[in-house]
Amino acid sequence: xxxxxxxxxxxxxxxxxxxxxxxxxxxxxxxxxxxxxxxxxxxxxxxxxxxxxxxxxxxxxxxxxxxxxxxxxxxxxxxxxxxxxxxxxxxxxxxxxxxxxxxxxxxxxxxxxxxxxxxxxxxxxxxxxxxxxxxxxxxxxxxxxxxxxxxxxxxxxxxxxxxxxxxxxxxxxxxxxxxxxxxxxxxxxxxxxxxxxxxxxxxxxxxxxxxxxxxxxxxxxxxxxxxxxxxxxxxxxxxxxxxxxxxxxxxxxxxxxxxxxxxxxxxxxxxxxxxxxxxxxxxxxxxxxxxxxxxxxxxxxxxxxxxxxxxxxxxxxxxxxxxxxxxxxxxxxxxxxxxxxxxxxxxxxxxxxxxxxxxxxxxxxxxxxxxxxxxxxxxxxxxxxxxxxxxxxxxxxxxxxxxxxxxxxxxxxxxxxxxxxxxxxxxxxxxxxxxxxxxxxxxxxxxxxxxxxxxxxxxxxxxxxxxxxxxxxxxxxxxxxxxxxxxxxxxxxxxxxxxxxxxxxxxxxxxxxxxxxxxxxxxxxxxxxxxxxxxxxxxxxxxxxxxxxxxxxxxxxxxxxxxxxxxxxxxxxxxxxxxxxxxxxxxxxxxxxx
Length: 594
What we know:
Layout: H1 2-11, H2 21-52, H3 55-76, H4 80-101, H5 111-122, H6 126-148, H7 159-251, H8 256-259, H9 262-289, E1 299-302, H10 303-319, E2 324-329, E3 336-339, H11 341-358, E4 364-372, E5 375-381, H12 405-408, H13 413-423, E6 427-432, E7 438-445, E8 471-475, H14 479-489, E9 495-499, H15 502-511, E10 516-520, H16 528-537, E11 546-550, H17 555-564, E12 568-571, H18 576-586
C-alpha cells in the first residue's frame, strides 16, 4: 500500500491545481515515462555493470536515472516545459550513448520507435514534435557513424554474457514499447470516456433545451393569447370612444355648442387615435418577433393623396402642441406608385407620431417625398432637441425612448417602422440636423404605376352620398358601438337594421334581405364565424356582401374569416373613412340632389 501511494505521488507530481485536463494528462504521461524508463535504466544498467565491470555503463546509468528523476522534480516545481525537454532529450542521449556502447550486442535503433511514440505522448505542439522526431533520426545517424568511425568504443562481452545482454536488451525494448502502448491506450480510453461524458452532457443539455423550448413556446402562446384577448377587450370600448370622437370631429364646425369645446374634442380624438396606434404597435411587434409576417400585398395608389390623407389625420394630433406639418413633394416624384399601402402607412404613421412627440412646441415638421436613383424616399424632419450620438442606433431597439417610456410612449414605433421598411426591401436611417432636431429617412424601391390615374380621392365623408335605396344590416352586440355605427351610416340616408347577435341577424335578414351586412365577429348566442357559415348556406342570403368587423388583428383570424365567406375585414377601433370606402365598394350611391 505504501509503495502504491509513493508511485501514485510520483506519477501525479505537479498536477495539483491543474484544471486543464489535457495538460494534467500530459504531465502524468511525462512522469510515467521518466519513472518507468529511469527504473529500467537503474535495474538493467546496474546489472550490465556487475557483469561487465565497465565504469562507462555505471556512469551512464546513474546520469540517465538522475536526469529522469530531475524531470519529475521539475514537474513538481511546476517547471513543465523544462521537465518535458529533460525527459525527451535524456531518452535521445541515452539511446545514442548505450546504442554505441552496446552496439555489438543489441539493436538500439529499435528504441527509435519508443522515442517517436513519446514525442506524441508528452510534447504538446507540432513544432516540438517535429524537432524531437528529427533529433531521433539524427541519433540513428550518429549511431551508424559510430559503427563505422568509432568515437564511443563498443564493449566486447564473453559469448555467454553477450547472449544475456542481447536478450535482456530486447526485453527492455519490449517493455518500453509496452509502456508506450499502455499510455496510448490509457489516453484513448480517457478521450473515449470524455467523449461519452460530453455526449451524455449534450444529450442532457438537449433535453433541457427541449424543455426550455417547450416552456418558451408555451409562454409565447400564452403571451399571444393574452395579447389577442386583451387587444379584443380594449378595442371594443375603444371603438366606441374613437367612433364618438370622429362623429364629434365631423360635427364640431357645424354647431355652436361643439365649437366651444372643439379643443376637448380634438384632444379626445387624438388621445383615442394614439391609443389605437399603441395597441397596433404592440401587436405588430408580437407578430414580428414570432415570425408571423403578413404577406406583402402590392397595389397602385396616388402618392400625394396617400401622404396628404395621413398628414390630415396627424395634423389634429400636432395641433395640440401648436405644431404645423408641412408637405413637400419633388416635381420629378412619380404620381402613382406600386407598393404595400397598408405597411407604408404604418411606417409613415410611426415616423410622424415620433416627430410630433419630440419636436418643440409651436414648431414645424417637414415631410418630404423625393426620388433618389432607383428608390424613392420619405423624409420626416422635426425641430426637437435632436438625438444624442450614443442613441442613434439604440432608438431602433424596442422599448427605447429618450424619455420615460410609460409617459411618452412604448418605444415601439421606430423599431416597427424599421422592420416594416426592411420587409418592403427598403432601409431606414436617421441624421441629426445642423439647426437641431432629427430627420428620419425611409427609402423604398421605386415601382411606378403607368396605368391611367384613378379618380381623385377626397377627404369627404358620407355627407355627399345617398344610399336611400339601400338596406344595411349592422350586427353588433355592444349597444354603444351600435349607436356609433347608426349615427355614422344614417348620414348616407340608408335604411339600417340592427341585430344584437348572429341568430337575430339571420332572422331579420330573412324578413328583409339587406344589400350589405356589417358583421361583428365576437358575439353571444351565435358569433360572427357561425353566422357567416349560415349565411352562405341560405340561397337567398349567400350573395350578400359581408364586411367583418373585429378587434382581432391576427393574420390567422383574418384568413379564417375571409375563407368562411367574408368580403372584407375592418379592424376595430373603426376609422370612418376606410369604413366609408369599404361600404362604397359594395353599394352604388344615388346622385345627390342639390
